Amino acid sequence: MDLTLSRIASSPDDEHQRPLKGKEADVVKWLWSIIWGTKRTRRSSRKSASWSLFRWFTPGLTITGVLAAIMAAITGQVNLPSLDSMRGTEPPVYDDPIASSVATSSPLQPTEFSSPRGNPESVASRKISPVGLRPTSSINTAGKSQTAIRVATFNIKVFGEKKSSDAEVMQRLAAVFMQFDVVAVQEIRGDPDVPINRLLAEITRQGGRYRAVHGPPIGRTSQTECYGFVWDQDRIDLVPQSDYMIDDSADRMHREPMVASFQTRVAPVDSRSPFRFTMINVHTDPDLVRGDTGDNELNVLDDVFQSVRNFEYETNGEEDFLLVGDLNVDVGKLAELGQIPGVVSLVGDVPTNTLKSKTYDHILIDSRVTTEYLRRSGVLDLESWFGIDQAGALKLSDHLPVWAEFSVYESPRQF
Questions:
Q1: Where are the beta strands (DSSP E) in 93-232?
Q2: Are 244 and 317 in the same domain?
Q3: Residue finishing a domain among 101, 133, 165
Q4: What is the value of pTM for the model shown?
Q5: Is residue 15 in some structural domain?
Q6: What does the alpha-carbon distance between residue 324 and residue 304 come to, in Å, rounded to a whole number?
């Protein structure tokens, strides 16, 4: 798989791709100092050898990773070099430099996830209740928590000029977004600035202060779409120059993911720093997530997840990653993505479509590492939240927002 990570513009004033920053000599010197006496780890191949897969594992711990990082510093791009010559026939083996350095905890189970949210007096602060999960705790949404942030993913069906011109739809979408601190958005259509700017304007009208960034139009057909991130600028910062697209030059995915990093806007307390995390925004092709085949996009996303987190860890010290979006499968069909040790879906198999019949949308984390997760997550039922019928909810989307809560501070690390 020929994937590279390439920068995209973070603001309307930055319309061109930006090179990654770095001091080449320092990088080379650092990498050279750590490689001696280490062993090279290998990742086995797909069952279908006809697809050339490109991976970059444990940079700094392998000769291949060293060369890749050197090239990244020199060229301004991260390339995932081919490891085809090292392939074997064993199942995939994952060597994670982050998780191996921290204490592990017991895996999370879907039964541990749920919480309603509490004040039904206004549209913008009514109860958020997970669909199909028994509530275990409640939080008042009259004012946002000072100790937790709420992260969400939302596929807004065909979110373009037509939908964003419907005043009632936009009022409700703005009310939804204001319940969350960061929202990953899928299926933005047409000129992305049109629906995004209308959404931000309506949020502002309702008293919020949000910002957004979106990627370029992508897709194999004429029906291209964009990814986006929308966040509460009073509580969250986009890390400068942290947003980029996965460059899938081998065309392994219908819509290559978008990546961005965020940090909470809080002052350090008792040596605990603000929570920083990286989100990988994904919308798979529903026709390309079936079976254990080389073209199953979920068997590509595991490489994306591993490559992004190794790159971010080595270049920025990033440890916390959320792969979010519309994966078009339930937990049992996550394929190789679901085989990465520690990776869990925070809402499990709770229905995430508006008809409440299928699980498509997920927030995935490595539970061994991202201990900032507060074990509160769920799905926002648009019908009950707004007091509307199913037809009214479908005007917003055929998907429901999926959310999870995290501490505003980094968890202490045990090395």
A1: 148-159, 182-188, 210-214, 226-232
A2: yes
A3: 101
A4: 0.72
A5: yes
A6: 12
